[in-house]
Amino acid sequence: MLLLSTSDTDLITARASSAGYRWANPARLIDGELAELLGGADVVVVRILGGYRAWQDGIDMVVASGLPTVVVSGEQAPDADLMERSTVPAGIAMQTHIYLAQGGVENLRQLHAFLADTVLMTGFGFSPPAAMPAWGVLQRTPVPTEAGTDGPTVAVLFYRAQQLAGNTAYIEALCEEIERAGGRALPVYCTSLRTPEADLLEVLGTADAMVVTVLAAGGARPATAGAGQDDDSWDVKHLAALDVPILQGLCLTSSRATWSDNDDGLSPLDVATQVAVPEFDGRIITVPFSFKEIDADGLISYVPDLERCARVAGLAVKHATLRRTAPADKRLALVFSAYPTKHSRIGNAVGLDTPASAIALLRALAAAGYRIGDIPGVAAGDGDALMHGLIERGARTRTG
């Protein structure tokens, strides 16, 4: 049975099932490889993200081969247009979609038996698709640390598909580093953050900070939201209500060697999905800690970089510790630009009133319990007094 899926977790799960699968990712096929794969198959399952046009030529070639073919969507919701291109009855195509959408090793094992019995008329026997939880906590043994259970809790969010495929080494490595840094790790998997379940939010509410590898929680069109055309579609109120620092843990789509050899660092795709879009969600961007590596079977897994894991963990634990610190005990710095180095250029921002913004920010901090001291101009709302006081203090510091 040939499984062609643009989801690497499907392929990893198929291998782990020990059923009679052959597998390949359509995005990585080279010329002639598809024909070779079809040559040894009895049934073909195609699972595609992006609809028919995402792999039109490939789907047409599979269907034209004459082999019993099931074509389904890589999304949780079925795609009628893709299913209609299947050469098996619609009921078989729909049941195949459910097996794959639920995911997990046992569902992939049962899918193999289901297709063998219903399409090839074998007699293995099969179970219906088993519903898998939409979210849960990764079970693991914490690393013993001096902090014990007194450290801040850092939740680590990752995709449910990775949990079901057993591809969690990168999450476990990050959790170990969080614990070595003095925190308590809470690894949680989920399908999405756009519409999180109430009980998931309740668990996340116990954390002092979060490291997130799941992508955008807001809308799907940041350019439109940024232009003010559809701002309401970009809604992260559920996460914002948790009132915890949320850090983006970067899981790159390239290998570590590719990243290391690239003068630009991140690829354009990773810049968009791992940095730019998460910033719309208000996340704190960290560093890459996981890379995609291809193994001997041609399958991709997420491989952690321990030094980078330690860096992300250190940032997360410090942010979590800071959250537990009372505002009056925190020390904040409000840094103005000063280039070129002239008094008239301090806080320069074209079209913006930096002094007024600074005063509004300082007042908000004071209202939140921060100690801002006696800063010139804040009480009276006098931006000129603030800037002159800053210039005078800076001149004294340089000369004295």
Written description of the protein model:
The protein has 400 residues and is an alpha/beta fold. It is built from 16 helices and 11 strands.
Task: Describe this protein with a few key phrases.
four-stranded parallel beta sheet, elongated, single chain, alpha/beta
Regions with pLDDT < 50 over 5+ consecutive residues? Answer: none
Total count of strands: 11
| Major sheet size, sense and barrel closure | 7 strands, mixed
Widest β-sheet, arrangement of strands: 5-7-6-8-9-10-11
Apparent shape: elongated
Return Rg in Å: 26 Å
Alpha-carbon distance between the two ends: 79 Å
| Mean pLDDT across all amino acids | 90
Structural class: alpha/beta
Q: What fraction of the residues are assigned to beta strands by DSSP? A: 15-25%
State the share of residues found in helices, binned by percent.
Answer: 40-55%
Instruction: Tally the helices.
Output: 16
> H/E series, N to C?
EHEHEHEHHHEEHHEHEHHEHHEEHHH
